Amino acid sequence: MRLTHFFTYFRNLGGVQSILKRHHSREQDSHFLFSFEANNFKEPNISGLGVDGWDSIRCIRKKLAKHSDLFPDSVAVCHNMWGLQFLSELIPAKRRIGILHSDWTTLRPFLQSQKELLDGVLCVSNTLMELVAECLPELSKDNRIQLIPYPIDGVPIMPNRMSLVKRPVIIGWIGRMQEEQKRVDRLPSLLKAFDDAQIDYRFELLGDGPMQEWLEKQLPANRTVFHGRKSGDDYFSTLSKWDFITSVSDYEGLPISMLEALSAGVLPLYPTIGSGGDEYAEKLSSNFVWEAFQFEQAASKLNLLLKQPEATLHQSRLNAVNLTARHSESEYFRIFDSFTQQIVDLPRISNAELPNRPFYFSDQLPFGLMTRIWPNGCFRRND
């Protein structure tokens, strides 16, 4: 049975996009449909709806209706289940599978809006699995909720590092420099805590974004390096020189950048926000996590780690590398293929025949405005 993947964007450089590109390289018979992309792809099996923030739910539905013929006789793979609550009857697939890549502030009510629309969900962290089971109890039977390890390329051999004695500790951060989710406005407070704790450090950032200029003014110039956006060998060459990687995000699913760092022996220094990231850090030791967002505690934990013998830190690096052993592309697709076949073989539990969507005044409003002033209005169901 062929697959039809559905998501928002494909051309962005995000974690979900990296997964979708792996699927596209591997699945020649699958089709890929993206809401917020223009329909100008050269590849014949990729389509875009051309949605933008000014489109209403009503407009989005009209645009998707023109592509509904992609779904019959296929398994719909709905990444982050975007829009399923108001688009479901326009996705008439044999089965609907969700892949939950991310966490966000309204995830719980969003998941509750997906009841009886899905036949199974793959999750990238145990925390997300637990939340899906709580919000969608109909999926708890027959192993319809499973964990899938994010694939990473990683580094073939953990690089050697100079002793931390008599040199600055290198702490890194990766992401889009923005306030929403990534909360880079917190980085000056984190670095001030490092300064107050008299830690000899260098802070390096990989990525770019709208707040880069602000960060360049706020962070101490003599301790900060902005590498910009890098990829491939340049990316891993920079990443592999770090001692620690940190985050100040409000929420995360399981950051691929963190897994890539662990694969190079970079140690985590993560806030406990209930993400897959701090779950991995805690597997190494409680010293690698700090209470969000107690920056003084982060500095204190780092000082404790820097006082450990070099042999102890080296063992922690080896343990970090081992944590990523199952995060290979082959293991990801083994689980994906097995789960998809399992869901096809099991009886369908998602609603096969959904009523036409009733009239909602909110469906006439620009979707971008809705998500800001009344996000719960986006969760209104067809039925």
Shape: globular
- Class of secondary structure makeup: alpha/beta
DSSP strand content = 15-25%
Give unreliable regions as ranges.
Answer: none
Average pLDDT reading: 94
Order of helices and strands: EHEEHEHEHEHEEHEHEHEHEHEHHHH
Number of strands: 13
Question: Kindly, what is the distance between the CA atoms of the first and last residues, rounded to a whole number of angstroms?
Answer: 28 Å
Integer-rounded radius of gyration:
22 Å
Please estimate the helix content.
25-40%
Biggest sheet, spatial arrangement of strands: 3-2-1-4-5-6-7
Query: Helix count?
Result: 14
Largest sheet: 7 strands, parallel
Question: How would you sum up this structure in a few lines?
Answer:
The protein is about 35% helix and about 15% strand. The protein is of the alpha/beta class and about 375 residues long. Helix 6 (about 185-195) crosses helix 11 (about 295-305) and helix 10 crosses helix 12 (about 310-325).
Q: What does this entry look like structurally?
A:
The protein is an alpha/beta fold. Helix content is 35%, strand content 16%. The protein has 14 helices and 13 strands. A seven-stranded parallel beta sheet has the order 3-2-1-4-5-6-7, with helices on both faces. Strand 11, helix 9 and strand 12 form a beta-alpha-beta unit. Helix 6 crosses helix 11 and helix 10 packs across helix 12. The chain is globular and about 70 Å long. The two termini are 28 Å apart. The model has no long low-confidence stretch (mean pLDDT 94).
